[in-house]
Amino acid sequence: MPSPRFIFVIGGVMSGIGKGIASASTARILKSKGYKTTCVKIDPYLNVDAGTMNPIEHGEVFVTEDGMETDQDIGNYERFLDENILAENYMTSGSVYLSVIEKERALKYGGDCVQIVPHVPEEIIRRLNSAARKSKADFVLVEIGGTAGEYENILFLEAARMMRLKDPKNVIFMLISYFPIPTKIGEMKTKPTQHAVRALNSAGIQPDFIIARAEISLDEPRKKKLSIFCNVHPEDIISAPDIDNIYQVPLNFEKEKLGAKILRKFEMKAGGRDMKEWARMVRRALFSKKEVSIGIVGKYFGTGKFTLFDSYISVIEAIKHASWQFGRIPKISWLDAEVYEKTPEKMKEELGLLDGIIVPGGFGSRGIEGKIKAISFARKNKKPYLGLCYGMQLAAIEFARNVAGMKGANTTEVNARTKYPVIDLMSEQKEKVFSGKMGGTMRLGAYACRLKDKTIARRAYGTRTVYERHRHRYEFNNALQNILESKGLVTAGINPESGLVEIIELRDHPFFLGTQFHPEFKSRPLKPHPLFREFIRVAITKKK
Ligand code: GLN
C-alpha cells in the first residue's frame, strides 16, 4: 500500500477565518476525485479534550461515534466528507503530554531523558500515522489550531517539519491567511500574510499553497507580489472570498482547480467523480424562496449572536440540511428561556409565530422553568416539537407535572430532593461525580436504540435499530416509566442492553418527540437526519 499523503493546514494572521471549513472543503474535493480522505484536528490547548470547556466561549462540543468530546471542526469534517471521524483523529497538547508522561511512568522510554523535543513531536507523528493507517486514507488533512508565530502550536509545527524532512514527497503545507481591506485605505493589504509566511519559515516550514481569505478575490497584481515575497507560485495562491453559505467553499476552490493542483504536487492523477450532487444541494440552499421558521429555546445571556451560533452549530446545520431538502430556507430564532419565566405573554406571542420549536441540550438549572413552559405551549398548541437531550428530559418533566399530575416533578440535576425524580443520575455516573472524575466520563458516543412499531421515530428512520450519539449523565427514570406510559407518554426507543429510554413521543400531536441522544451530530448536507427531516416536514405541512 502506498504511504498516505499529509496536507498540513496552518493559519496565518488571525484565527476565526475559516480554517476548519477550508480543510473540510479541500478534503471534500479530494474525495470527489476518487481518493479516500480523512481529516485530523489538532488543538494546541492543555485540556485533554474539548468536553470540559464552556461551549458559549469555545463553541460546540462535538461528539464522535466512538465517544470523544472534540472541537466543532470535527463536525465540519464529518458534514463535508460525509464520513465518521474517529477519536484517533483528534488531539490536544494536553492529550499528547498526558501520553508522553504516562509512557515515561511506565518505563517505556528505556532509561532515556524524556525531552520536549524530540519526544513530544514524535508522539504527535505516531498519532498522525496511526490515524492515517486506521482510516486507510490516501490523504490526511491535518489542521493545526492557532496561527503561525504563536507559542502554543510550535511543537505541532515541529512535528510537521520533521515529517516533511523524512518524507518530502508525501507532505505539503497550506497556509490559510487573512487579507484585510482597511476602510480608510480602501485596498487589500498583503503585508500581514507576508509576515505570517516569515513566521512559518522561522519554524522551518515553507507553504506550498496560500489560501487567501478576504472579502473579495485576490487580483493578479497582488498574487504576483505575494508570490515574490512569499516564495509561492502565483497559481498556488487560491482566492477564498466571503460567501453566503459554507458549502459553497469546495465549489469556489475548484474554480481555481485546487484539487488538480494538489494532486499534481503529489504526482497523482484525478479520478472520475464529480461534485454535481453537492452543487445541487448548494443551489437549493442559496436559491430556495420559501421559508420555515424554527425557534430554539435556550439560555442565552451575555452572548452575542456569533457565539450562540457556534455553540449550537450541529443543531443549526441539521435544521438547514432538512429544510433545504424540502426547498425551504430555515428562519431560526433564538428565544431566551429566562424571559419566558417572567413574561408568559411574550412567550405565547413569539412561539405562536413559529412553525416548529426545539429545546436543545444543556446543563444546570438556569432557564429550565422557561424551557418547560415553552414545551407546555408546544404540547397544548400542537406545535411540532423536537427535544434534544435536555430537551427530551424537560419534556418528560413537563408531561409528568402537567399531564400525570406529579407536582414538583424534576430532574435530580436541578432538585436532588424532588418527590418525582423523572430524570435521575445514571447509576454508573454516581461514583464518577462524587469522586470528581468529570473529564470524559459522561455517557458518550454511539449506543443502540431499538425503535417500537407505530411510532413517529420508527416511521422516520424506516429501520428497527439505530445508533445515535450521546453526551449526558442523567437519564429517564425507569421506576416511573409504567405510570407515565399509562398516562399516554410513548417510550418509542429503548437501549436494548440497559433498558434506558432513548426516545419519548406523544400521540394525538402532529410531531412531539424528544431524544436522549443528539441526532444533530449525524446530520449531513446530502443526508439530512431522519428525525430532523420529519420534524421539518411536519412543520412545513402544518404551516399550510
Ligand atoms: N444535563 C443533562 C444530562 O447531563 C443533559 C445533557 C445534554 O443535554 N447534553 O443528562
Write down the CATH topology of the largest domain.
Rossmann fold
Helix residue percentage: 40-55%
**Number of DSSP E strands:** 21
Give the termini distance in whole angstroms.
56 Å
What global shape is seen? globular
Account of the 3D structure:
- One of its GO terms (molecular function) is identical protein binding.
- It is an enzyme of class 6 (ligase).
- One of its GO terms (cellular component) is cytoophidium.
- Keywords: ATP-binding, Glutamine amidotransferase, Ligase, Magnesium, Metal-binding, Nucleotide-binding, Pyrimidine biosynthesis.
- Pathway: Pyrimidine metabolism; CTP biosynthesis via de novo pathway; CTP from UDP: step 2/2.
- The protein has 21 helices and 21 strands.
- The model has no long low-confidence stretch (mean pLDDT 94).
- Strands 11-10-12-13-21-20-19-16-17 form a 9-stranded mixed sheet, with helices on both faces.
- Helix 7 links the parallel strand 7 and strand 8.
- It folds into 2 domains: 263 residues, Rossmann fold, CATH 3.40.50.300; 198 residues, Class I glutamine amidotransferase (GATase) domain (Rossmann fold).
- It has 544 residues and is an alpha/beta fold.
- The protein binds glutamine.
- Glutamine binds next to helix 17 and strand 17.
